[in-house]
Design brief:
alpha/beta; 586 residues
Length: 586
């Protein structure tokens, strides 16, 4: 199972063949976490619920015409329905439920019955590109964290401590090295740790705590760009670091799978990995009790280190949410309101990436369906040239983001980021995405690229996701719990001509905690393909920029005003800020 060249797939239309490429890439054993169980990443992020669904979907795609749309409901291929050429070729929903029944208990029962499915984000929408996506996002996060918290442009001589070496979290080690940091990642599963080490994503392995502490100090003093995998529980590591007389950690986070805290996404410090698995099977209630105790202990150690100067952020994995539910000390001492998105530590969107999203920059990605590395190298070159040109007229705030992504794309080949399909990701704004898409389409039309390009994005983007503990955690106008943006976004992408669209309940932070959506769009060299793409991308990005500007983000406000100046047919409702003295008098 892998992404073959698009020319090898038996189908009537290019768009259907492209979807086949993307589906099979999501189930490639090099890409997927548990491919035989149809799980791509995140422990339970599924492409389909069973192999019959896979086979039937591939059958429908082989028969599809450009005037039909495939309906996919939580993995179930409901069928091909008549539509029209500008309609999506597929509409995907995953895990959508009547809101009053958005509970984990209902989900587990309905999932077992085959009625619903947890599609994570890009697993169930067929747009996952392996760990490269999260490597890039983590690299951008680390770079901006260094600027904001430490006042540095690179992290040489700085220590980052975190946890998790799984399908998503495994990217942290490589991203840290790209940013020149000493990155320490704790992992309880020896197989996961050694897999990342063998892949070259993790440079070193320490299985002894004191050896790990000594190595951290040595690498920090020498300003080494390295990644150290510690085989052990992150709670034990934090507690040991808190005992050090010297603060040797600058930045901290966590990427354990706390969207699934009591099903193996997080292991209690009181037990070994093997003992934890045995207890999970024999006594789930006791396992939960120990997990919650571990979360309380982890927060206590982190709080101690932060009081001494370390900076910590929640990486959107529900760490602080689950710690709060466990009774950990996650609130500011003077916080009596207990606001849903106001923990002691910010999420990485609140503290670091929210202002970047508000500029319109987010994880734009593409796949060269020919399967040719030469095609990918050419698209890298095209994207780099586009960014250099855009730098000339970009706002000052955008120039730094363009520069970061130009560095990323120019180093992408040497960083050996491809796993599975010939894919790439970079953060681009609205104009950047449309311009890159236009140049790709021209290269397909001229034959410079050997096959079509599928462009998409992570659901974790400017507009695609409503998530009060992650993507929309920095919206303080009261709307963080509202899901209008994600739903509007997918409907808008569909009616503007995306090749396929998806909308999911759950993803990243867990079931019932987020509504998120995405798209896939095939650039086949035709005028219709780029017409649809530009129309759709303009909406896809600026819908979220507008929401962020309305909620009070200055970058969002400035970006949408600039966009209106460029496009007379764009008219949005702008906020009028209240006079602070007026508010104080009330």
């Amino acid at each position: 199972m892998k992404a073959y060249s698009i020319s090898e797939y038996p189908a009537n239309i290019t768009q259907a063949r492209a979807m086949m490429v993307m589906i099979m890439n999501n189930l490639d054993k090099r890409v997927a976490m548990f491919p035989h169980e149809l799980i791509t990443y995140g422990g339970n992020g599924a492409v389909f619920s069973n192999w019959a669904q896979f086979r039937l979907t591939m059958h429908y795609l082989s028969k599809m015409t450009d005037e039909q749309t495939l309906s996919l409901c939580s993995g179930h291929p409901a069928g091909l329905f008549p539509s029209h050429k500008d309609a999506p070729r597929a509409v995907i929903t995953n895990g959508m439920m009547v809101p009053n029944y958005f509970t984990r208990e209902h989900f587990e029962r309905l999932y077992a019955m085959g009625c619903t499915m947890y599609g994570q984000m890009t697993a169930g929408s067929f747009c996952y590109i392996g760990p490269q996506g999260i490597v890039h996002g983590t690299t951008i996060t680390f770079k901006n964290a260094g600027r904001k918290y430490l006042g540095v442009e690179d992290l040489a001589g700085k220590v980052v401590v975190t946890s998790g070496l799984g399908g998503m979290s495994g990217a942290q080690a490589k991203a840290g090295v790209i940013c020149k940091a000493v990155t320490v990642v704790a992992e309880v599963d020896a197989n996961a740790l050694h897999k990342r080490h063998q892949q070259g994503w993790l440079k070193e392995v320490c299985e002894d705590m004191e050896q790990c502490i000594t190595r951290i100090k040595e690498a920090r003093a020498n300003k080494e760009a390295t990644s150290i995998g510690f085989l052990g529980n992150i709670v034990a590591l934090w507690e040991r670091l808190a005992q050090e007389s010297e603060l040797i950690v600058d930045l901290g986070s966590d990427q354990t799978s706390l969207h699934n805290p009591y099903g193996g996404g997080y292991y209690p410090v009181q037990l070994s990995f093997q003992e934890g698995n045995a207890l999970l099977a024999s006594d789930p209630a006791k396992f939960k009790e120990l997990v919650q105790e571990s979360l309380r202990r982890q927060l206590t150690a982190i709080n101690t280190l932060c009081q001494r100067g370390m900076r910590f952020w929640d990486y959107g994995n529900s760490f602080l949410l689950e710690a709060m539910r466990a009774g950990a000390d996650v609130w500011e001492a003077n916080d009596e309101v207990r606001s849903i998105n106001r923990f002691r530590y910010p999420s990485y969107v609140q503290g670091i990436m929210g202002d970047v999203f508000a500029l319109g920059f987010g994880p734009f990605r593409w796949v060269c369906t020919s399967g040719s590395p030469a095609d990918l190298a050419l698209t890298d070159s095209i994207a780099a040239e586009v960014m250099k040109k855009l730098m000339e007229t970009a706002s000052d705030a955008s120039k730094r983001q363009i520069a970061d992504n130009l560095m990323w794309i120019e180093q992408a080949g040497e960083n050996q980021l491809v796993v599975g399909s010939q894919a790439r990701i970079l953060y681009a704004d609205c104009v950047g995405r449309m311009t890159i898409a236009e140049h790709f389409n021209e290269a397909v039309a001229s034959g410079k690229l050997a096959g079509p390009v599928v462009m998409s994005r992570d659901h974790h983007d400017v507009s695609g996701t409503d998530s009060p503990y992650r993507e929309t955690s920095d919206l303080y106008d009261g709307s963080a719990l509202c899901a209008d943006m994600a739903v509007q976004n997918v409907i808008g992408d569909a009616l503007r001509g995306a090749t396929w669209v998806s909308i999911h309940n759950g993803g990243g932070v867990g079931w019932g905690e987020v509504t998120n959506g995405g798209f896939g769009h095939v650039l086949d060299g035709t005028a219709d393909a780029i017409r649809r793409a530009k129309n759709m991308l303009f909406w896809d990005v600026l819908n979220g920029v507008n929401r962020r500007g309305w909620s009070g983000n200055q970058n969002g406000y400035d970006t949408i005003v600039r966009a209106m100046g460029d496009r007379p047919d764009l008219m949005v409702t702008l906020p009028v800020r209240a006079d602070p003295s007026l508010l104080e008098s009330l």
